[in-house]
Amino acid sequence: MKAYQYPDTHDVITNQYIKHHEPYPQYWQKSEDRILNRLIDHLRSLPEKGRQRFLDAGCGGGRLLPVFAPYFREIIALDPDNNRLNMAKDIINKNNLTEKTSLFNCKTEELKDQQNFDFILSSHILQHLPTNSVFPILEHLINLLNPNGLLAVTTCHSIAPHDVYTKSYLENGQLQEIAISKEEFNRCIDQTGILPAHFFESETFTKTINTLGMERLDFQVFHANIPDIHPLTDTDDLLNASPEMQAQHGRDMYLLFRKIN
Q: What CATH fold (topology level) applies to the domain 9-162+201-259?
């Protein structure tokens, strides 16, 4: 079996998208930092017994491991792309996290763990998975949670009243992003140089997760799809001012769930 390789090697397509759509320099990171700070505030409010074990399910190059490491005693990080996992290993070494971090080169559904987790992160993973595997994988993660454990998800957000599918690629050095069918999306999975994306309609997504024994604690959209934003404008606060605004804006979304049974 061919080893898995993330299709957007070195994040070239993603970086081109940001370059062409970022309304001002550093907005993309600022928008995500707002979400990370919101999540960290929630983690800080938990008792210590609720902050023991953390799973980064699809850690990629490991960029978020140092962000959450201070709040947990033990970290498990997995990724099916061995090249990206080696990048994560470098980050772990540079941040002195080797003693409390274990790395696994596997798919999420292949992780077998005899102890459950207090917090699981799925960051920008679900939008690149085959459509028929998204919710089985989420169910697997939920089964790995302790009672009252938290699942944080960031993924692509549909501003249509239904799920949307796209593929992005570079043609003569220029970024192309086109809408495609669900069937073509699934055919594009794992094609190097083509980055398929599944944009989820948030309420349908939430209702499905709720049926798996979870309740939603937080929901925010981020990465505004609005041109010409002024750097001093609190754009992301505005996007999240009402459910109506959230439904119409944001390329990405953040959801925090708690296990209730």
A: Rossmann fold (3.40.50)
